[in-house]
Amino acid sequence: MITLKNVVKKYDGKEVLKNLNVEFPDGKTSVILGPSGSGKSTLLRSLDLLVRPESGTLSFSDISLDYSEPLSKKKSFDIRKKTSMVFQNWNLFPNLTVLQNITTAPVTVLKKPKKETEEHARKLLSQVGLGDYADRYPSQLSGGQQQRISICRALAMNPDYILLDEPTSALDPELETQVLLILEELSKMGQSMIIVTHNMEFARSVADKIVFVEDGNILFDGETDEFFNHPTTRIKDFLSGITFKDDKMLK
Length: 251
Description:
Blueprint: E1 2-11, E2 14-24, E3 29-33, H1 40-46, E4 55-59, E5 64-66, H2 73-80, E6 83-86, H3 98-108, H4 114-127, H5 143-156, E7 161-165, H6 173-188, E8 192-196, H7 200-206, E9 209-214, E10 217-223, H8 224-229, H9 233-241
């Protein structure tokens, strides 16, 4: 379980996270939704310290920190080992092969044996349908393939949670579907994931829990069925505003 309590984050004196309290359960897929600029990505990045709030606490089952207090290198490392981030634009190293992109961090950061790490990486590639791509370079791959490699890279770190920040926003619909199918399969396998997305159909099909954020506040924190089938007026307006038909997501 990840728990955030009383988290406040400011940019240029403006609060973008306003005393947030939220939990993300183990073995589940939590999806963070909300309009642009609502604080979704800031919330997500607070979990692995890419963003450092001014106050509040972050707790895993066996480790916690107070954002307002000095953070030792050891505790920072211990926290970051718990999570692995997948970004919008995959961020692969262009000068490394696919296999090297996946294995570099486990070998250099976690000090895992190279042979064992490479075997694990090849298994991950097979799972995402890219078993023959180990020796290729990112420039030889499509966007959807690169994002699947990014997911493999995250899984190779054996994190408790995978964090995904709009993982398909840079992809065309066909490539997006390829990546979403991989994430759906990971969800079925019980991989703990926290996903920021604008894809409502995906959120509806894969999420065990929805967190709806607006203007730095959490307006909904609960089950997926409740969010889509019994929405508040504000959530209904949000869902209607991002679909062609006002009632599409509410059926």
